[in-house]
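User: Hey, my collaborator sent me this sequence without any context and asked if I could get a structure. I don't really work with proteins. Can you help?
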Amino acid sequence: MSWQPAADRYSKMKYNRTGRSGLKLASCDQSLKRMGLDYVDIFYSHRFDPETPLEETCGALDHIVRSGRALYVGISSYNSQRSREAAAILKELGTPCLIHQPSYSMLNRWVEDDRLLDTLDEVGMGSIVFSPLAQGMLTTKYLGGIPEDSRAAQNHFLKRDYIRPSIIDNIRKLNEIAERRGQTLAQMAIAWVLRGGRVTSALIGASRSSQIVDCVKALDNLEFSVEELAEIDVYAREADINLWAKSAERE
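Assistant: No problem. I've predicted the 3D structure and written it out in C-alpha cell form, which is a compact way to encode the shape of the chain:
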C-alpha cells in the first residue's frame, strides 16, 4: 500500500473528532470492541453524508487505516460522481479505496443508469453488490402470497407495498426463465449480477445454511445467451425498491 503524502489541500486538513467523522472513528472502535478484534480487513463508509465535507470523511477513513484499525477502506451507496471524488481524495491521502458496495439486482438497476460500474472500472475500484435477491423478492417466497415469517410481513425493510401484482407477475416470468436454465430464481439472480465479470462479488443474506448452498450453486452457470438477457430485460424492471437511493444522491 502506498503512503505518499497527500497534496497540500489535504495534508493540512484536520477532521473533527467530535463531529460526524469523529463518530465514524468511534463507530469503528465500538465495532472492534464488540467483535473482540484489533482490526478489520475493510472498513466502509456506508453512506454519503451531505452534511460532512467528503474530504473530512475520507480523512477519517485514512486515519482508520494509518492507526491500524483497518487494512483497507471501502464506500457504499455512493453515486458515480461521489465515488470518483472519494477515490481521488483517498488516492492522494495514500489510502486507496479498495471496493464499492452498491445495491444492485434485477429489480434495482440504478447502477446502470448512473454508470457506476464504468466509473469503478476507470478508477480501479472493485464492487461487491448487496441485496442481489432484492431482499428475498427474487426467490419463489412471495409467488403465492406473503408468508407470515417473511420480511414483508414485518413491513420493515421490505414493505408490503413492494409486493405488487405487477411485480409478482414479472418475478414469476423470471422464475420460468430460471427453470429453463436449470437454476432456481435465486441462483439466476446472483448469476445475473455477476454476468460479464464486472461485479467482483455478490453479498447475500441467509437465515438457513440451505440458502447459502443454493446461492453458491449460482456459480455453476454464469453464462447467459443474448436471447436470455433480452428476455430477462423484459421482466427485470426497476421496482422502486431502492431504500438506499437518498444516500446515493439520486433524490
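In plain terms: Confidence is low (pLDDT under 50) at residues 1-18. You can pass these C-alpha cells on to your collaborator as they are.
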